[in-house]
Amino acid sequence: MKKSFCELILVYFPKIFEVGNLYTTCIANCVFNGFLSYTAIMLNIVTIHAIRKTPSLPRTLKTLLLSLAVFDVGVGLFVQPFYSSLLVKWIQQMVPNCNTYKTFSVIGNLFSSASFLGVVAVSVDRFLAIHLHLRYQELVTHKRVVAVVISIWVLSTFVSLTMLGTPSSTSTLIMCILVVGLLLTTMVYIRIYLAARRHKNQIQVLQVQQVTQAKEIANFASLMKSAVGVLYVYVVFLICYLPYVIGLAVFEIVGSSITLKKLHFSFLTIVFLNSSLNPVIYCWKMRHIRHAVMNILRKMSRHRSRPSNETLVLAGHTMP
């Protein structure tokens, strides 16, 4: 017999008589989520501004990175506060109603699916930039990239809403999308790694040849750096999401228990951590974005210091 959504959700979240056993876990996760919500919003807003102010980034890559940052802002702005409110209710020995769980499930699945598909899209874009090389700009146009971003939103919304009606079937669909996306992205980075080795050999052969060839190698090296930067985004995504996916698989095999529910809360927090880590990776591995972020922070510090200096000057004039 198929379980309804309300029955299924209580496999992962506490029933009324289990809430007391999860008190400490809920407090710890509530504190972490409050902090991570703030960092996800602020860091990604700064990153969005930095990406927009980075003219050296290709327009297609810029669009995909902006969409990924927007997904992460959505996690910090909507999903994490909602999750924190659930944790507060459990701390108060209360159990939310089914409609509250449904809303959280829709919002959480929407942004999580969009973030995952966004990472896959950026990875495929960097592979095409390296593989197609001169034909990349002809085939991967800005309009097509915008269409991909819209498709990600539509697919993520569809999957999230479908789960309310047929949770078991939708869970299978999500797992299929996840597996296909992971396999696709892994294959993409294997191809990028092979291209990097081939490129290294070419550099050794062409070091003594003409400047035009050296310039082409430099352009290719720039593509490789952006691909490596996105690779770190993908690796961190895996580290944050795999515990959650493995936890769901253990629920299916072993069944529900207090220990697994405690782990489930922590795994959700680690999933949300990903939205705060992505902008850090952009700044660490993508030089142009890092410089733009540093310029933004410098301007912000100057604006903050001006009022205090003006206040001191005015105070000096008014003193007898």
3D architecture notes:
- The chain has one domain: Rhodopsin 7-helix transmembrane proteins (Rhopdopsin 7-helix transmembrane proteins, Up-down Bundle).
- Helix 3 runs antiparallel to helix 4, helix 3 packs parallel to helix 6 and helix 7 runs antiparallel to helix 8 (211-254).
- It has helices at 5-12, 23-52, 59-91, 98-132, 136-139, 142-165, 167-206, 211-254, 258-285, 287-318.
- By secondary structure, the chain is mainly α.
CATH superfamily: Rhodopsin 7-helix transmembrane proteins
Rg: 23 Å
| CATH-derived architecture | Up-down Bundle
Helix content: over 70%
Strand content: under 5%
Name the poorly predicted regions: none
Q: Give me the count of strands.
A: 0
Q: Examine the coordinates and then state which fold CATH places here, giving the name of the CATH topology.
A: Rhopdopsin 7-helix transmembrane proteins
Distance between the termini: 86 Å
Number of domains: 1
Mean pLDDT: 80
Largest beta-sheet details: none
User: What is the H/E order?
Assistant: HHHHHHHHHH
What is the tally of helical segments? 10
Which CATH class applies here?
A: Mainly Alpha
Q: Structural class, from secondary structure content?
A: mainly alpha
Tell me the overall shape.
globular
Summarize the structure.
By secondary structure, the protein is mainly α.
